[in-house]
């Protein structure tokens, strides 16, 4: 009986996912340049949020220094492309390997000496700030002046990952889809179960045979590698890399806004959160400019964040799920509830 | 009968406090052994030493002839020793079934295999009907049984139970006694740390009594309860039956 219900729910989830991406695809084909560039950023931060969500929402490890991994990805692409003309594909791969190893090293060092929880989070900030300062003074990577990509010639070159705004929109869309499918896949594999157990109670998980030391390193390096991929594409989209913006604390916070607002540990949370938070920020920024109220975007941002945390502490996406359950009535309500736990 | 676990001259101190002092006993395969003693006797410390959660100050623990006292808990678990916690610790955000699945991942990576093992474990403790509930919907006896089911999913040879009966009403405890007896009939070796004497008498075939960290008596339950030293440790000097 349970199986039959699960399959029905499965279909609903797939349909919902496909519909969302079909709509996003249409947006890419039909929308005006402003919407396209805004949505590209939304989708990239969906992917980055997904990577952060994997680490905290599933693996239970808090990072407030994800800018480090994003930055490593961006610089790998930037340095190889700008300095040597090597394809960004190679840069992305290099960045992922580099960030994955850096993430694994930080994790190894930290957990080897029993530094965990909030202290581990502080360590991630320290590592990110260290890297930012190092890159700010490193002439080879452009130091404070940064790196600039040559303006796109107009044509689309897939082998060099170069093209116009619409091209990058679809790259970001593909990345976001990949992130969602990947998260869903990991969630359902044995890694998902073991990581969630480790998140909920580490010593109980160890008593059940989970090798938490290895699993923590694995989840962190996977999250770091995916963040680097997002960072590489972000650099291409922006056309320039500056240490203060790509490796700064601000970026680390931007990465975690999506999943926190959307719903921690859920597959669709980062997408919903980014869709809600980023356009609002841009809108308020524009409104603040025309009304001559500097900082209006930051104030609104703060108010919205506090309201979400106050009224919907588990995020917008779980609230939507609860709403659907209320509309659809008791039999499915029970289903959503049991599914919520599975998520 | 073969010896599954051997505890040799085990001691553990915390700073100046000696919690367990030169304790030796062995567990025979397929039998329920109880570790009892008044509050503060060192039962839980002794239990944690066997489970790998604490390292002994001196002495050894041998499981199937191999020394395990320096192994971390996950290794001890993978060797075939599963434990429960005195204070129940379900994974809060996971369903009852998912909780029971985790242990199975110590021997398989196949999710559907783990799921069927989890159903089997829940079945054997009478929780199968609540497999899809959230853990905060369970009653206390059910949560205690979930702890046992989680441990059973690791396919243990030895099951360590830390006060599974504490805080339960007699009728609830009786249900758990039935479950334990069935598990032992199925060939599982069980070490029970217990405070409630009546239950120990009912379920254990061998009893080890600790007092102030040292072993003061060992034997079949009916002999142990008649031992003046045991009575004294529980009820104070001068009280003799």
From TrEMBL, chain B:
GO terms for cellular component: plasma membrane. SUPFAM superfamilies: P-loop containing nucleoside triphosphate hydrolases. It comes from the Bacteria. Residues 5-237 form the ABC transporter domain. InterPro entries: AAA+_ATPase, ABC_AA/LPS_Transport, ABC_transporter-like_ATP-bd, BCA_ABC_TP_C, P-loop_NTPase. PANTHER family: CONSERVED COMPONENT OF ABC TRANSPORTER FOR NATURAL AMINO ACIDS (PTHR45772:SF9), CONSERVED COMPONENT OF ABC TRANSPORTER FOR NATURAL AMINO ACIDS-RELATED (PTHR45772). This is ABC transporter ATP-binding protein. The lineage of its organism: Bacteria, Pseudomonadati, Pseudomonadota, Alphaproteobacteria, Hyphomicrobiales.
């Amino acid at each position: 009986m349970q199986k039959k219900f699960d399959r029905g729910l499965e279909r609903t989830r797939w349909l919902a996912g496909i519909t969302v991406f079909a709509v996003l695809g249409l947006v890419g084909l039909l929308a005006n340049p402003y919407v396209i560039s805004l949505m590209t950023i939304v989708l990239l931060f969906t992917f980055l949020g997904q990577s952060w969500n994997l680490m905290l929402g599933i693996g239970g490890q808090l990072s407030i220094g994800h800018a480090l991994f994003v930055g490593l990805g961006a610089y790998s692409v930037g340095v190889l492309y700008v300095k040597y003309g090597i394809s960004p594909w190679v840069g992305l791969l290099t960045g992922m390997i580099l960030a994955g190893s850096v993430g694994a090293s930080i994790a190894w060092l930290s957990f080897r000496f029993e530094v965990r929880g909030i202290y581990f989070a502080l360590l991630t900030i320290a590592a990110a700030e260290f890297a930012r300062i190092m890159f700010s003074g490193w002439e080879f990577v452009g130091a404070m002046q940064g790196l600039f990509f040559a303006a796109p010639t107009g044509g689309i070159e897939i082998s060099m990952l170069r093209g116009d705004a619409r091209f990058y929109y679809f790259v970001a869309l593909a990345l976001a889809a990949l992130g969602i499918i990947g998260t869903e896949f990991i969630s359902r594999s044995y890694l998902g179960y073991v990581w969630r157990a480790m998140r909920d109670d580490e010593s109980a998980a160890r008593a059940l045979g989970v090798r938490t030391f290895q699993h923590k390193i694995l989840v962190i390096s996977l999250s770091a590698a995916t963040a680097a991929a997002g960072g590489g594409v972000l650099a291409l989209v922006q056309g320039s890399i500056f240490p203060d913006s790509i490796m700064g604390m601000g970026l680390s916070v931007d990465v975690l806004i999506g999943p926190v607002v959307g719903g921690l540990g859920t597959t669709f949370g980062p997408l919903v959160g980014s869709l809600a938070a980023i356009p609002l920020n841009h809108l308020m920024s524009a409104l603040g400019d025309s009304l001559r109220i500097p900082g209006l975007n930051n104030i609104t941002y703060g108010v919205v964040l506090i309201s979400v945390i106050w009224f919907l502490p588990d995020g917008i996406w779980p609230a939507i799920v609860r709403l659907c359950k209320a509309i659809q009535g008791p039999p499915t309500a029970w289903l959503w509830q049991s599914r919520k736990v599975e998520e | 009968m073969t010896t599954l676990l051997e505890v040799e001259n085990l001691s553990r101190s915390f700073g100046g406090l000696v919690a367990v002092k030169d304790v030796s006993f062995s567990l025979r395969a397929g039998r329920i052994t109880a570790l009892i003693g008044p509050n503060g006797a060192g039962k839980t410390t002794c239990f944690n030493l066997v489970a790998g959660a604490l390292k002994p100050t001196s002495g050894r623990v041998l499981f199937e002839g191999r020394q395990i006292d320096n192994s971390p808990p996950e290794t001890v678990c993978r060797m075939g020793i599963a434990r429960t916690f005195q204070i129940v610790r379900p994974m809060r955000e996971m369903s009852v079934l998912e909780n029971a699945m985790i242990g199975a991942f110590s021997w398989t990576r196949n999710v559907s295999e783990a799921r069927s093992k989890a159903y089997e474990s829940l079945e054997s403790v009478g929780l199968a009907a609540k497999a899809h509930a959230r853990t905060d919907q369970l009653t206390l006896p059910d949560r205690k049984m979930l702890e046992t089911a989680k441990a059973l999913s690791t396919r243990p040879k030895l099951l360590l139970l830390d006060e599974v009966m504490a805080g339960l009403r007699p009728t609830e405890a009786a249900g758990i006694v039935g479950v334990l007896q069935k598990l032992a009939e199925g060939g599982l070796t069980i070490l029970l740390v217990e405070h409630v004497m009546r239950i120990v008498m009912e379920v254990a075939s061998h009893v080890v009594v600790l007092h102030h960290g040292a072993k003061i008596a060992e034997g079949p339950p009916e002999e142990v309860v008649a031992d003046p030293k045991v009575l004294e440790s529980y009820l104070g000097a001068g009280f003799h039956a």
